[in-house]
Amino acid sequence: MFRDPRAQIVRKESWHDYHLLALRSPLVARRSQPGQFLMVRASGQPYPLLRRPFSIHGREKDVLEIFFAEVGIGTAILAEKKDR
Prior knowledge:
The radius of gyration is 12 Å and the shape is globular. The chain is about 15% helix and about 40% strand. The chain contains two helices and five strands. It has a five-stranded antiparallel sheet. It has helices at about 25-30, 75-80, and strands spanning about 10-15, 20-25, 35-40, 50-60, 65-70.
């Protein structure tokens, strides 16, 4: 398992309740492939406590993409995140 506290959202696209986030994380990207899972912490606060699993939608160099539907509090918080 790799943790990258420096990962950054570099692009965000949204279609109603569906979202695509592009995350820059060279440490994780070079060791991952589409179809594998990332455990994403939605907030720096204690709530929601658990990380959310997301399948890697795409990867290009040091950028990973995750695609998700906004269905609960964790994904709603993640959907509100801003890119750089």
